[in-house]
User: What shape does this take?
Amino acid sequence: MFTGTDMKFTIGRNGDNNYIVDHDTVSGNHAEILVSDDFKNFTLVDLESTNGTYVNEIEIVSKKITAKDVIQFGSQRADQENLFDHLSKYIKSQRTDFSPEFGQLLKIETAYKAKRRSLNKNYKLIAMLPRLIITVLVVVVIYFFPNIKSELRYPLMIGATFLGSTISTLGISERKKEELLDKLKTEFQLSFVCPKCGSELSGKEGIFWKEKKACRNKQCNATWQIKS
Assistant: This one.
């Protein structure tokens, strides 16, 4: 496998290129894209092609490029989205160390757990609110009307407690909370996957995968090393 310093993505008309451009004005080995160590920066290099390589309508020998640039090989304009999609897949196929991406997965897991705790806590507080308000109102009534007979005072307090509990039960849908939790979990499961092959990792905690240092898929060679 390659490191960033020697990873090259070849472009041309020949079938052994990483990206084939089947056009008469494109040379057999027309150009190549050099990939930086962090896999985020790309340099397009013309390989002394017959009809030249162009970036934004200017002929180049070597130039850093992004997906926003208009790239042309000979007289054939490249489909930037398709070109960079192939480049991205090629880089992923050649890499084995995905430590930075796995570090992001751990952050995703931490955020998910925080949101889940917050959702449970907020629903619990909302459920208690009607009971608290009614209890406070009863205390206020008793305080400002101290002459209320004791035989009415206690039934009033008991009734208020019962009413508050009933309103809490009716007002806060447990089903709604579960729906939100399920949605949150699904979003997490779709995000917490191997950065190379996409295998689901959410079946176990992030700490497990941190110690395992490899994907669960035996056909995938992705690894990671996270310092404690």
Notes: Strands lie at 8-12, 19-20, 31-35, 42-46, 53-55, 58-60, 62-65, 71-73, 76-77. Helices lie at 80-94, 99-144, 150-171, 174-191, 206-212. The chain has a mean pLDDT of 85.
